Amino acid sequence: MSVCNCKSCPLIDNGDSLCGRLTSKQLQEISRHSGTFALKRRATLDPMPSEEGAVIIVIDGVVGTQNTLTDGRQTITAYYTRGDIVDLRGAATHMHAHLIALTRAQVCRVETAAFQSVLESNHEACFALTSKLREQISLMGEHAADLGKKQSIERLASFLLECHIRSGYNDSKPAKIAIPMPRISLADYMALQPETVSRCMRQLEDMKLIETSAGNLVTIRDLVRLKELAAGGSKPGLNGAIER
Amino acid sequence: MSVCNCKSCPLIDNGDSLCGRLTSKQLQEISRHSGTFALKRRATLDPMPSEEGAVIIVIDGVVGTQNTLTDGRQTITAYYTRGDIVDLRGAATHMHAHLIALTRAQVCRVETAAFQSVLESNHEACFALTSKLREQISLMGEHAADLGKKQSIERLASFLLECHIRSGYNDSKPAKIAIPMPRISLADYMALQPETVSRCMRQLEDMKLIETSAGNLVTIRDLVRLKELAAGGSKPGLNGAIER
DNA sequence: CGATTGTTTGATCTCTCTCAATGGGCGTGG
DNA sequence: CCACGCCCATTGAGAGAGATCAAACAATCG
User: How large is the average pLDDT for residues A118-123?
Assistant: First the structure.
């Protein structure tokens, strides 16, 4: 961990983000009560400087919240990328999840009290936060729907669409997206086994919906059919699935 | 739908809640831009008076957000009870879920603009909201963990614990909780089939962890073992499960 | 009181997990 | 810079948990 120097943080350039809305004075205040962490993949971050939790802001890379069962089964319940805010104020108590880096990552941890005091004096920042939180709730709702009654291939289709949206794409043109985490974490996020992810990815390729290339890159070839599949439309079968 | 009269709303008595922190003048303002709805079970509520969504506050009963796949499979991604706030401002666009009453319910719908303007003039209310939102994120995280890699009986154990907490219990004494929704909705919430819910409920009874009684009431007989089970501890087997 | 909706039990099927083994890629350390 | 080792990805064969189907019963609502 090193002391934050917010003024040189890449996030403050974005006027839409929370950090981008802070005054120079507030940035100074935050700087004094925060620190950046460089995390290697699989490294965990203790979000509690004291007992009341903290606020984590992702500067670079991808981090996730992970739950582990007693026999080792693991689930990643959410993932966060550049600019995302993980508000863990007060979450210290009965939280079963912990933060883990899904790729090499860099995060900023802000103490609860300092964060709170900035919010109190800055309406804009407060609204930016609630907006972020609403966005997260919406994403988590979609994710719960994915984990719910969808089959593995539908789930994967949904995941690709989630990536598509979170990458900032909107149109229907072929888009190249980067899977933000390795297969094994993707499996934990989608509540599948890595083997199943691999098989379904291949199926999606065979169905001509996507095209994979090196470096975790995936090209979406048919966004419409991918959406149909994610919505439960055409069932798994590759060529002429048998409907009852 | 009928026009709101916030002054007579049962929610404003609770000083911790958002509504309870509003000034008399703000309550008047809200009253003019909100309405209450009485919903029968399974009735859906269109959260959009216009295009920019709205804020829904649950006055009584239980409502949930439901996603339906093209072939009829259904998932309930979250449920809300008295005092809970469903902030759907701006969610109108690409939201696949819709609101549905899981029991007979009464809700209040506040227009986006009015809600926003009150937040701008009332810090306390704004913080109450973010606190609620954080709580929801935390709950949804736990729920995602439940849907993830847990087996059906572990999932049900988790659900009972969620009810336990959301009912306001804290101690380890035998507690009687009310399942807030019918089995069929519970199945949709836990991503199981009603048949499976029924079978697992019986198993939990056979294991002496719970006791069911009429009217959706469940008594938790052994909170500790229930927690162990929910955390993946003792595997499904009733008497001496075989671990590898 | 009838009709619809919800709950429970039993038998069978299937999708996904599990287990096992191989190959590739990346980072680490010499 | 290269070689080693670890982690990750992929493929195949087999097993099991939960879904599905079917049917009877209970409860709720109008």
Answer: 92
Please identify among residues 51-110 of chain B the ones whose CB lies closer than 8 Å to any CB of chain A: 65, 67, 69-71, 73-75, 77-78, 87, 89-91, 94-97
Q: What nucleotides of chain C have any atom within 7 angstroms of a protein Cβ?
A: 5-11, 15-20, 26, 28
Cα A194 → chain centroid = 19
Alpha-carbon gap, residue A136 to A133, rounded angstroms: 5
pTM: 0.93
A28 in helix, strand or coil?
Answer: helix
Determine whether the interchain pair A150/B69 forms a contact, defined as Cβ–Cβ distance below 8 Å.
yes
DSSP B215: T
Residue B44 · residue B64 · CB < 8 Å? no
Angle of CA points B184, B181, B1, to nearest 5°: 110
DSSP letter at B11 equals G
Number of H helices, E strands in chain B: 7, 12
Q: Is the pLDDT of residue A143 over 90?
A: yes
Label residues B141-156 b or e (16+ Cβ within 10 Å = b): bbbbbbbbbbebbbbb
The secondary structure of A78-124, three-state, reads EEECCCCEEECCCCCCCCCCEEEECCCEEEEEEEHHHHHHHHHHCHH
- Are A222 and A208 spatial neighbours (Cβ–Cβ below 8 Å)? yes
